[in-house]
Amino acid sequence: MKHKDSYSTPELLRIMGGLELRMNQFYTKVAKKFTEPEGIRIFWDSLAQQESVHSTIIYTLSNMYRNNPGMFNEIVEVDYATMSKIEDFIKTSEEKINNEDFDLNAALQEAFDLETLEVNDIYDRIIESPREPFLAVIDHLIESEDAHLNSLVEAILEYASSDKLIEKAKNLRATFSIHEQV
Ligand SMILES: [Fe+2]
After folding, report:
1. How far does the centroid of ligand 1 lie from the alpha carbon of residue 36, in Å?
2. Span from the CA of 65 to the centroid of ligand 1 (angstroms)
3. Is 180 helix (H, G, I), strand (E, B) or coil?
């Protein structure tokens, strides 16, 4: 069985740009669907906004690649399971929201599955050292992805109804505090 696939950087940036844009659309729609309590609507809106910034960053990276291809890795390996989930989300997110079973817990679960994908690893691999001119762009992207994973965990602990999902969020939060202590 194949565990990794190779992508050219322009192709990968195209896919990741599509993912960030799709996540923006997903969170925007979810924010319109789950408006109560106020805190959850604000949470979804802020995720939507961040995804919109991410897709702009990816667009900027694509332009940088065109002008400075030598500063980027030409080929990036991506875990097969991660890419399948990304492609599946891009194709099916719309119909998931429209499904009648799609409640607040399902929305939080979907967000959790997405935000725990190793997208930061992908962004890390697109540009490796020396990457000085682009460091700030990539670092901003990675920090922002980490920050909204943090806020997602808090939202799950507050609003999710599934014990299993709450348990997963707690486990993930435990790994955050380990990192903070280091
Ligand atoms: Fe993102």
Report:
1. 24
2. 19
3. helix
Residue that the structure tokens 């762009």 belong to: 137
CB-based contact 16:54 (threshold 8 Å): no
Q: Which domains does the chain have, with CATH numbers?
A: 4-181 (1.20.1260.10)
Q: Compute the distance from residue 20 Cα to the ligand 1 centre, in Å.
A: 5
Residues with CB under 5 A from ligand 1 (ion): 20, 51, 54
Instruction: List per-residue pLDDT tens for the chain, 182 residues long.
Output: 568 889 998 999 999 999 999 999 999 999 999 998 889 999 999 999 999 999 999 998 898 888 888 878 888 889 888 899 999 999 998 899 999 899 999 999 999 998 988 888 888 888 765 556 667 788 888 888 888 899 999 999 999 999 999 999 999 999 886 655 44
CA–CA gap between residue 90 and residue 88 (Å, rounded): 5
Ligand 1 centroid to residue 141 C-alpha, Å: 8
This prediction's pTM: 0.85
CA of 146 to the centre of ligand 1 (A): 9
